[in-house]
Amino acid sequence: MSMDVVKELEFDKEVLKRIEMICRFACVKPVIKQGSIINIKGTNIAYVSPHITSIKRYI
Predict the structure, then answer these.
(1) What percent of the chain has pLDDT over 70?
(2) pLDDT tens digits for 17-41?
């Protein structure tokens, strides 16, 4: 059984700007991974992979 990426989720531009502004203020670096919707062929099962934001400290 193989998986196909049906659609990549869009990240709201305003939310992205706010996250970046807060991280600049806190002197940290955000790493944002885009989410997607994965549909499994031959079934009616779909998996939603959410956006993931990691915060890394500047050293």
Answers:
(1) 88
(2) 999 999 999 989 999 998 998 888 8
CA end-to-end distance (rounded Å), the chain: 44
**Domain boundaries along the sequence of the chain:** 3-57
Whole-number Å distance between alpha carbons of 55 and 37: 24
CA atoms within 13 A on the CB side of 51: 13
Cβ atoms of 48 and 37 closer than 8 Å: yes
pLDDT exceeds cutoff 60 at 1? no
Q: Write phi, then psi, for 35 (nearest 5 degrees).
A: -85, 170
The answer to whether 38 and 21 have CB atoms below 8 angstroms apart is no
